[in-house]
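Human: Note token order:
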Amino acid sequence: MAACFCGSGDAYENCCEPILDGATQAVTAEALMRARYTAFAVKRAEFLHESLHPEHRHDHDIEATRRWSGNAQWLGLQVLSMEGGSAEDEEGNVEFIATYKEKGVIRPHHEISRFVKQDGRWFFVDGRLVAPKTEKRKPLKVGRNDPCPCGSGKKHKKCCGG
């Protein structure tokens, strides 16, 4: 048995495949989010459309989803946190990073997805991208008698610092 694409550690046949095939429903928001990631990996755009909340389907471009799913190589899923979304809840948020490769470039997709349960079934409502943290670099401190950082081999005071 092959491991599931969602990274749960379970076999695909016992994890996301029954959800994608409609044999079972996702019990939690996280389970639906993992199944949606797997749908991208196995190119099941119809599942992505059907698991979208009915009120949000009107502007969903299934063909664009199909192209993105098909043009990318899905490399892994990391679930970072959950807020709500248990079997007893009616709403939940799942923060995750889905890593994919497109046109030779590896890209992380960091999102907080919002889910709601309606008539006992979980639906994806929308997602908010998480911007990467800005890293502030400290300026390089070079003493006058230190080697010049330009690589000339001279002392800084006799080169770029003079």
